[in-house]
Amino acid sequence: MTFHGALDRTKYTIPRFERARQTEQLGTSCLYWADPSLWLDEKLALSWFTGAGSLDLFELLADRSVAVAEAIGANRVIFTGSSGGGFASLQVSARVPHSAALVFNPQTTVFHYWQSVQRPYIRVCFPNLLPVPAEDFDFSYDWTEALGDRLSAVRRYAKPTENTVHYWTNTHDWHHKKHFQPFKRVLGGSASETLTVHPYDGGKGHHPPSSERFAEALQTCLDETSSFPI
After folding, report:
1. Residue 216 class from Cβ within 10 Å (0-12 exposed, 13-18 middle, 19+ buried)?
2. Beta strands in the chain, from DSSP E residues, in sequence order
3. DSSP code per residue over 2-47
């Protein structure tokens, strides 16, 4: 199950499906998710598959994904994505017991991402949540706390889950410190049971994994995961 990250709306049309060509070559069955919230505003680049307002999209995505897996008799259920798609993978996988999240430099909390991306997201998806318009908000507090663990995988994984996380982190990406380290800390002593970390040198900056690295990571994840109980 794949999730896309942020989209340059001047470059990509929606719906956007990522890794389709590559996963087909690897011989895996795959369900490609496209974020429906992007239809709400033609300039919105990223909304993390959270849904808008009172609609928590993660629960719906988890239910639909399990239904598809059961229909085709899948023997593994792996949710994968990088950056914003990695955040969605973490959140949906946490709601599907015995599944795996294969993520590459994901955001682990929306609040720690760029404010320039948060502002239009708030305006479109949660227009009534803040005491002031999103354009005037000074981000002096974590506004996502009002939504519990919906916008924070760190808060989500502070509670027990029944999935596994296969986390590929580029140690030269600012996400390593800002997103990976808080996520690893919250797992504490249970990290060996839930979290498998794959650090790598992907060069300075925030970039999606190469095709070669993705193929390596997917095969490693397949080798490391147990059968899904259909």
Report:
1. middle
2. 2-3, 32-33, 78-82, 100-104, 164-170, 195-200
3. EE-----TTT--SS---SHHHHHHTT----EE--GGGGG-TT----
Percentage of the chain surpassing pLDDT 70? 96
Total length of the chain: 230
Q: How far apart are alpha carbons 4 and 99 in whole angstroms?
A: 19
3-state secondary structure of 73: coil
pLDDT tens digits, one per residue of 136-166:
999 989 999 999 999 999 999 999 999 999 9
- Report pTM: 0.94
Q: How far apart are CA 161 and CA 163, in angstroms?
A: 6
Using alpha carbons, select from 223, 20, 213, 182 the residue that is nearest to residue 103.
Answer: 213
Token pair of 192 as six digits = 């060996």
- What pLDDT does 75 receive? 87
Nearest to 109 by CA among 180, 54, 39: 180
Residue 131, judged by CB atoms within 10 A of its CB (0-12, 13-18, 19+), counts as exposed
Rg (Cα) of the chain, in Å, rounded?
Answer: 17
Indicate the pairing of strand 195-200 with strand 164-170.
parallel
Q: What is the pLDDT of residues 172-183, one digit of tens each?
A: 999 999 999 999
Helices 84-93 + 57-72 axis angle, to 10:
70
> 10-24, 70-84, 103-117, 135-149: lowest mean pLDDT where?
10-24
Joined together, the tokens standing for residue 83 give 């950056």
